[in-house]
Structures are given as structure tokens and as C-alpha cells.
Design goal:
The chain has 11 helices and 2 strands. By secondary structure, the protein is mostly helical.
Length: 359
């Protein structure tokens, strides 16, 4: 262990910078080698002082870069070791559950949406209407499906045929699924959802708007604009103030533009936030019955979308900011996720605890 005051001759900036980056190393490695690595770094700095400031900067930057490289390597290696055969199967389960849930929910809501508009003549273009209805429906069902899939996978037992006795792998069957792969999968889904919300959904909505209106060209609304078009429309509204009689209406439009931008971003981020919340719930209450999963999902989705809808109305009346209106649901869900993960059995916030296989 380092004695108090040792290494004070080393430049304070580099010494404290190296110490600040040490948490990049996994806890076990940092406890074993962290002090020795800092001692070695201080010695190299002291030696470089004789060669001038330039040499000290080279040694300092090289040391920090080496520490960052080793930290990333060790973290990745730790996660790869934790991703056992059983966890790969469970993660595959989660992906399959997500695809099936998303397909069922999207198909159900698309059917409901199309049935509501049967009274509107579409001139034999019903199939096109169904296809164009999918994007804006999927924007809502994708985050819901991520939550359901992670909750369902986290509440099931690992495959019994992957126990230590069958595989000879001492790390298999420990009933622990690392959060990193779950978050990685949710992040990939979030990126796809962002592309859907930002580009595909507005174009599909504009086409639907054209079909239902029966006109060749229509004026885009906030929900049929891409993020770039929304920003351009908002900037134009600000740079070219409307006449006084329509100021209030155009002011509401300006708020709706910003609300729509924030909504597209928040719904994509919800994939990761809801995945964390589902992981936290599964870690606290293992082996959740299917009926309980349905109730939990309804409560979470109901609360999430009520918060979004209420925030949207308040923001369009300029009572709260659009960012707060659209992101408040994510903030609440993230707080709940952190609480459930920290309160997981054994305090394992870094892993989703799963029940052991049936013997």
C-alpha cells in the first residue's frame, strides 16, 4: 500500500489524472494492482522530469492512454467471461421474445387503427394503408416489446441442460445474466427505433395523410415531418413572426414542433430505459408468473404513456418545456430502474440474477 505523502514529487496534474482513471479497471484488478500501477507511473514521471516538460507530457499521456486501453480491454474481457453458454441462450430467448411480442402487438394495434378508419374511402388501397400504418404503430410497440421480452426472459429458469454436469464449464449454470448484453441489445433496438421515428414514420404518415385526404399534395403536419424538417419549420416560424391575429395558434405550432422532436428521441431512448427497469424488476422478484408479468406490463405502459400524453398537452399549452414533457417518463422509469437494480438480492446492480436451473 502507498504511504501517505509518497509520490508528491510527481507532477500533481498527471498523478491525479491517473488516479481518476483507475476506476476504469475492474474492481478486483484495481484492488490487486491499482496502487502498484500508480507507484510505477509516479516513478516514470519523476524520471522524465530531468528531461524537461516535454518528456513529462509524453510519459503522462502514454501512461493515461495505456491505462485507458487496459481498462477497456479488462472490462470487455470480464463481460465476455460472464457471458456464459447459459446466458447466450437466455439472451437469444430475449431476442426471440422481443420479435414475437413486437409482431403481435404491432399487428393488433394496426388492425384496430385500420378498422377505425374503415368509413374513410381509400379507393382500393387498403393494403397500402395497412403497410403505412405499421411505422407509427411500431414506434409505440417497440419499447413495450423490449420491456416485456427482458421481463419474461429474466423471470424464467436458465436451460436445465446447460448445467455444469453437462457442459463441464464451471461458469455455466450460476444463474447470472450480465446487464451489458441486455443493454447492448436494447441499445441496438433503440438505434433502429430512432431511425424509424426520425425518417420512416414521418414519410409514412405523410403518405397516409395524402391517401385519407384524397388530394395529390397536402401540407405536412408535425407528425409527418422528419426531425430536420421540424427544426426548419420551427426556425422559419421564429424568423418570420406571424401576424397578431394568428400569433397564439402559431405559437402552439411552434411548441408542437419541439414536442414532436423530443418525442421521437424519447421513444427511442425508452428502449434502453425500459430494458433496465424490466431487469431490475426481474432481479427483485424472480420467477414472476405470466399473469403477474401482464399486470406489471400494463401498469408500466399505462403510466408511461399517460405521462407522455399529459406532458404533450401541457407543453403545447406552453405550461412546461417540451423536453421536460417528453423526457419525464424516461426519467421516472430510470429512477425506478436504478432503485430496483440497487435493491436486487445481494446488491448485484451489475447483473440480472436468475433462478438456478431445475435439478
Amino acid at each position: 500500500m502507498r504511504r501517505h505523502g509518497e509520490g508528491k514529487s510527481a507532477p500533481a496534474f498527471w498523478h491525479h489524472a491517473y488516479r481518476a482513471l483507475l476506476p476504469l479497471l475492474p474492481h478486483g484488478l484495481r484492488a490487486r494492482q491499482g496502487d502498484a500501477m500508480l507507484e510505477l507511473f509516479d516513478r516514470e514521471l519523476r524520471r522524465s522530469e530531468a528531461d524537461g516538460a516535454r518528456s513529462t507530457w509524453v510519459v503522462g499521456l502514454t501512461g493515461l492512454a495505456d491505462l485507458a486501453r487496459r481498462g477497456v480491454y479488462e472490462r470487455v474481457s470480464e463481460e465476455r467471461r460472464a457471458l456464459t453458454t447459459a446466458n447466450v441462450v437466455i439472451l437469444r430467448r430475449t431476442a426471440v421474445a422481443f420479435l414475437m411480442t413486437c409482431a403481435v402487438l404491432t399487428a393488433t394495434l394496426v388492425a384496430q387503427s385500420v378498422l377505425k378508419r374503415l368509413a374513410v374511402p381509400v379507393s382500393g388501397r387498403a393494403f397500402e394503408v395497412v403497410l403505412l400504418t405499421i411505422p407509427f404503430t411500431a414506434a409505440m410497440t417497440i419499447p413495450m416489446s423490449v420491456f416485456i421480452a427482458v421481463l419474461w426472459a429474466g423471470s424464467r429458469r436458465p436451460p436445465a441442460n446447460l448445467s455444469r454436469a453437462h457442459t463441464g464449464d464451471t461458469s455455466v449454470g450460476d444463474g447470472t445474466l450480465r446487464l451489458a448484453p441486455v443493454v447492448g441489445m436494447a441499445s441496438a433496438v433503440a438505434l433502429c427505433c430512432l431511425a424509424l421515428n426520425a425518417e420512416l414514420m414521418p414519410r409514412a404518415n405523410l403518405r397516409l395523410q395524402t391517401i385519407y385526404s384524397g388530394q395529390v399534395a397536402v401540407v405536412p403536419t408535425d407528425r409527418s415531418m422528419t426531425i430536420r424538417e421540424l427544426r426548419q419549420a420551427a426556425a422559419k416560424l421564429v424568423s418570420e413572426p406571424p401576424a397578431a391575429p394568428t400569433l397564439e395558434a402559431d405559437g402552439a405550432s411552434l411548441a408542437s414542433y419541439e414536442v414532436e422532436i423530443q418525442k421521437k428521441l424519447a421513444l427511442a431512448a425508452a428502449c434502453v430505459v425500459l430494458a433496465l427497469l424490466a431487469a431490475g424488476i426481474a432481479s427483485r422478484a424472480q420467477r414472476i408468473r405470466l399473469s403477474a408479468q401482464v399486470v406489471i406490463s400494463i401498469v408500466v405502459f399505462g403510466g408511461y404513456y399517460v405521462c407522455m400524453i399529459a406532458g404533450e398537452h401541457l407543453a403545447e399549452r406552453s405550461e412546461i418545456s417540451p423536453a421536460l414533457a417528453m423526457w419525464s417518463a424516461n426519467v421516472i422509469a430510470m429512477v425506478l430502474a436504478m432503485i430496483t437494480l440497487r435493491a436486487a438480492p445481494g446488491g448485484r446492480a451489475a447483473a440480472l440474477r436468475l433462478p438456478p436451473p431445475i435439478t
